[in-house]
Amino acid sequence: MIKVIQNQFKRIYNTNRAFFITFGIWFILIASILLFVTKRESFQFINSHHALWADILMTLNTYVGDGICIIALALVFCFLKKWNFAKGIFGTYVFSGLVCCVLKSIFHAERPAAMFKGDPTFHVVSWLPVAYANSFPSGHTTSAFAMAATVAIISKDKRIGLFCFILAALTGYSRIYLGQHFLEDVAFGSLLGVGTTCIYFILMPMISFNKRPVSNFKLPQIKLMGAVLPVMINRNRSKQERRP
């Protein structure tokens, strides 16, 4: 069993080397910053550099990691009959989202809005609600990187995976820019998204009901609560996060 898992992981890595190397550089860079800069300082550096055009751009980009948009993307792939993409995006969103929700409930970390309450330098946009609780890890970043890793693993054109990585990285940046998260929330969220996606693609073929070989990325049917479960997860996240 262990050897099968190792072989499957090697297969995933070797066929998506560019994506994982790029992600590794991203994560090591952020981890290095966090070693020498406090989360308050790193947040203020990003959050203090803002403009109206960037407010609009970052608002649009942050929705890349929103649950509704992830589900909508899965439905688009269903319409296009790209079943591997649809099931992969849906499955990794649910899996990563569940793990993220558990971690949020464990840590109960305060958001930047709570730390910088009353600080005139704290920047938020008027058209988005401000969250105060459950900061660690970033749910939007987790979902965005889970989606990016899923597309990278399934897609034959690996340039698409790198493009999705850029979108996911910008989503993480937008969470800090918009005053919703700290850098450490984004860093761990990206690791969680990629990590849970790798686990998903390693384990799901092994428990397939139709006994497909583990080297086949055609995923088994996911018998969860239809499309209702991820919406419920997203709503529960929102209720917990927006508590003043």
Automatic annotation (TrEMBL):
Cellular component, GO annotation: plasma membrane
Residue spans crossing the bilayer: 18-37, 57-80, 89-107, 127-153, 160-178, 190-209
Annotated ranges, domain Phosphatidic acid phosphatase type 2/haloperoxidase: 87-201
Membrane topology value: Multi-pass membrane protein
InterPro entries listed in its UniProt record: PAP2/HPO (IPR000326), PAP2/HPO_sf (IPR036938)
Single GO term (MF): hydrolase activity
Keyword list, A-Z: Cell membrane, Hydrolase, Membrane, Transmembrane, Transmembrane helix
Localisation: Cell membrane
CDD domains: PAP2_like
PANTHER family, sorted: DECAPRENYLPHOSPHORYL-5-PHOSPHORIBOSE PHOSPHATASE RV3807C-RELATED (PTHR14969:SF62), SPHINGOSINE-1-PHOSPHATE PHOSPHOHYDROLASE (PTHR14969)
Designated name of the protein: Membrane-associated phospholipid phosphatase
